[in-house]
């Protein structure tokens, strides 16, 4: 029987990794990821998780150790945040390009300078193009469920790619939530043992990580792109299977009161839950507003996004990261390119808000929606609007 | 040594695990060192190779010179990748997912990948006590990218980023003592070797691989391209590096120093240096300065070794 317990989300991730029977955890502590790895270290220390915990000397080495561990066929997990994710940067590309299945949770954190340990999506956006499958989560249950799904997706023989599960630092990582944990037997049934087909082993020596001259590099990269796009099918199937097994269904894009909505808000991550309460309130006031929540960040769900917003007149996208000197929020930029060729599409307004741990309150979301409507009607000279910044 | 030349070669396996066809330069001492090290390691290894000469010459897609499982990922992380390999294997064997057997994790890197950019990852892996062998193939500069200085480049050597000139003597710092840094981690086995002494090299790599816990083997690898010397002098220069005391062959076993080759009288450093274009510009004064330093360092090492003998 599955059991529901109140637990800090970071600790719950540790419990999920235990249920997933990880073989190796290599991690370096960084706020706000620390509670995840502390809990894993204590599970290993107490013999509750039969895994090797490698207390590496940096995030660069954390991800590097993960490469080695995944390459011999061990189920491999790590977690990081902010600067740590940045220090891993070049290694992230290698993990994806070498088709090494591993799972990492990222407690999203702002980037220096000035130093900030608090949450936003700057770290995630900086690793957007590393070739990982990337999911954003809204609550503790979703993180736990997607840790199981992430391992299954990563290790699927058709996929063999690393998966990043993003959760908002502090706003999600440090809150205590009621979370349903499946039984070990249920997890084992959903998540079969890892059988990496190209393991490093003396019985059948393979060479991994050759260098590619121009004559073959493009082919290698294109194969990777085709593979990442194709992984979507497995992601969708995995979420279906998870739903059938556990009763909680996930999809790349979630729509909330969007059927007849003229105005849509689009969010990603835990702030979506706040946004939902605002939609409820405005609906109560008779306003035709709805919410689109983006869960699958890579591969980007172009069609799902087009379908979700096609009937709206105004689409207000809230990003929690800046693209300096660029088109505004990175999520909005993707959404705009998904819609560019569409004959019927809403006017898209980009907002950047909630940087470095600043809350977006329900009143804030309401203000963003109202201002978004105004801009879509009157227009604006700005590429995007920054919300709530004192001038 | 005489006995070695008669009998020992017959004991060395003829099986090649680092096979011909790679693209190393003519006279490459490093390729020779890798070949000998692979003979010593045997087949039951997994090698994590850092970016560098040996990685580039051995693995242009879709070909390979490696007959053992081998992975290259990045420049500075060979030791970290090896820690993951070692931990992964240990867990998979413990859980019965793969058969129990001795598989040694091996990290290989050049002097730049070891003493500069990879030093932190190496230090971490040694400190954590992983059961692995780290082999540094030291050709005393970033040769793969075109002879740029590293912290392992010797004092006075002219490289493309420490060029000798009117206002420059070449490299102004003394060669970083990597074996001492490894030994300072209190790991069970540290050794220096050179392919000019092939059986000593094989012996040390074997010993390192047989040692439980971290082992560090530092191999001087003559680079005719970067050292500006004739390609047929590779073996000779390796011998001279040892005979002059510039690169002494020694071991540090559980903290105890042992000098493997000692000489009643060291050759003058000029015997070694005059054969190389990278030192050609050095004045008598600077050569004297180098001689003094080498003599002093050698004496210090000898004292450590003799103290440990008692």
Short summary of the structure?
The complex is a heterodimer of chains A (391) and B (310). Chain A is an alpha/beta fold.
Describe the protein's topology:
The complex is a heterodimer of chains A (391) and B (310).
Chain A: E1 3-8, H1 9-19, E2 24-26, H2 34-45, E3 52-54, H3 59-71, E4 76-80, H4 82-87, H5 89-97, E5 103-108, H6 122-126, E6 133-136, H7 140-155, E7 163-168, E8 176-181, H8 184-190, E9 207-208, H9 214-246, E10 253-256, E11 263-267, H10 271-284, E12 289-294, E13 296-298, H11 302-309, E14 314-319, H12 330-339, E15 347-352, H13 362-378, E16 385-386
Parallel strand pairs in A: 2-3, 2-4, 4-5, 5-7, 6-7, 11-12, 11-14, 14-15, 15-16
Antiparallel strand pairs in A: 1-8, 6-13, 10-12
Chain B: H1 2-11, H2 29-41, E1 45-49, H3 53-58, E2 70-72, H4 78-94, E3 104-110, H5 111-116, H6 119-128, E4 132-138, E5 164-165, E6 168-169, H7 178-183, E7 189-193, H8 198-210, E8 215-220, H9 224-227, H10 234-243, E9 250-253, E10 256-259, H11 269-273, H12 284-309
Parallel strand pairs in B: 1-2, 1-3, 3-4, 4-8, 7-8
Antiparallel strand pairs in B: 5-6, 7-9, 9-10
Helix pairs in contact in B: 2-8, 4-6
């Amino acid at each position: 029987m599955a059991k529901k317990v109140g637990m800090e989300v970071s600790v719950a991730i540790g419990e999920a990794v235990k249920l997933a029977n990880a073989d190796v955890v290599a991690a370096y502590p960084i706020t706000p990821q620390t509670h995840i790895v502390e809990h894993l270290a204590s599970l290993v220390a107490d013999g509750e998780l039969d895994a090797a915990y490698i207390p590496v000397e940096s995030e660069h080495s954390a991800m590097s150790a993960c490469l080695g561990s995944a390459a011999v066929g061990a189920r491999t997990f790590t977690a990081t945040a902010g600067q740590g994710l940045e220090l891993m940067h070049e290694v992230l590309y290698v993990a994806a390009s070498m088709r090494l299945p591993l799972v990492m949770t990222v407690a999203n954190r702002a980037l220096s300078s000035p130093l900030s340990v608090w949450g936003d999506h700057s770290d995630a956006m900086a690793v957007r193009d590393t070739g990982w499958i990337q999911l954003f989560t809204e609550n503790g249950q979703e993180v736990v469920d997607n840790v199981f799904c992430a391992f299954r997706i990563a290790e699927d023989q058709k996929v063999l790619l690393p998966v990043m599960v993003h959760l908002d630092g502090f706003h999600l990582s440090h809150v205590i939530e009621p979370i349903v944990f499946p039984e070990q037997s249920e997890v084992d049934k959903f998540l079969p043992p890892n059988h990496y087909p190209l393991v490093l082993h003396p019985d059948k020596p393979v060479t991994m990580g050759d260098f590619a001259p121009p004559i073959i590099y493009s082919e290698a990269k294109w194969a990777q792109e085709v593979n990442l796009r194709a992984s979507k099918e497995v992601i969708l199937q995995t979420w279906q299977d998870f739903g059938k097994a556990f009763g909680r269904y996930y999809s790349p894009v979630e729509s909330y009161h969007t059927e007849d909505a003229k105005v849509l808000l689009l969010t990603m991550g835990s702030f979506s839950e706040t946004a939902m309460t605002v939609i409820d309130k405005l609906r109560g006031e008779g306003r035709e507003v709805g919410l689109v929540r983006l869960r699958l960040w890579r591969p980007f769900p172009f069609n799902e996004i087009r379908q979700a917003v096609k009937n709206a007149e105004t689409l207000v996208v809230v990003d929690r990261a800046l693209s300096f000197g660029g088109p505004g929020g990175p999520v909005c930029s993707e959404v705009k390119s998904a819609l560019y060729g569409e004959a019927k599409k809403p006017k898209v307004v980009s907002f950047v808000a909630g940087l470095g741990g600043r809350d977006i309150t329900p009143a804030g979301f309401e203000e963003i929606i109202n201002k978004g409507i105004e801009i879509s009607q009157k227009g604006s000279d700005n590429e995007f609007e920054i919300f709530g910044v004192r001038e | 040594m005489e006995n070695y030349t008669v009998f020992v070669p017959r004991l060395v396996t003829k099986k090649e695990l680092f096979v011909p066809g790679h693209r190393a330069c003519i006279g490459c001492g490093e390729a020779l060192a890798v070949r000998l090290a692979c003979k010593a390691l045997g087949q039951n290894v997994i090698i994590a190779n850092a970016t560098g000469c040996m990685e580039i010459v051995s693995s242009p897609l879709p070909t390979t010179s490696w007959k053992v499982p081998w992975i290259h990922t990045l420049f500075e992380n060979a030791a970290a990748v090896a820690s993951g390999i070692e931990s992964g294997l240990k867990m998979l064997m413990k859980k019965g997912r793969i058969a129990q057997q001795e598989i040694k994790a091996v990290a290989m890197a050049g002097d730049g990948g070891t003493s500069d950019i990879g030093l932190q990852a190496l230090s971490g892996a040694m400190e954590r006590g992983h059961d692995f062998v780290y082999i540094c193939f030291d050709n005393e500069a970033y040769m793969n990218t075109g002879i740029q200085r590293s912290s392992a480049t010797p004092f006075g050597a002219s490289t493309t980023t420490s060029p000798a000139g009117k206002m420059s003597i070449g490299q102004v710092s003394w060669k970083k003592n990597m074996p001492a840094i490894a030994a300072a981690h209190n790991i069970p086995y540290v050794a220096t070797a050179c392919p000019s002494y092939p059986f000593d090299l094989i012996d040390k790599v074997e010993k390192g691989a047989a040692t439980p816990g971290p082992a560090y083997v530092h191999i001087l690898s003559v680079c005719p391209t970067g050292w500006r010397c004739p390609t047929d002098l590779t073996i000779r220069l390796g011998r001279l590096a040892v005979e002059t005391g510039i690169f002494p062959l020694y071991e540090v076993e559980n903290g105890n120093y042992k000098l493997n080759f000692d000489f009643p009288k060291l050759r003058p450093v000029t015997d070694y240096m005059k054969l190389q274009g990278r030192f050609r510009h050095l004045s008598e004064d600077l050569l004297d300065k180098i001689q003094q330093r080498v003599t002093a360092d050698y004496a210090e090492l000898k004292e450590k070794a003799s103290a440990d003998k008692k």
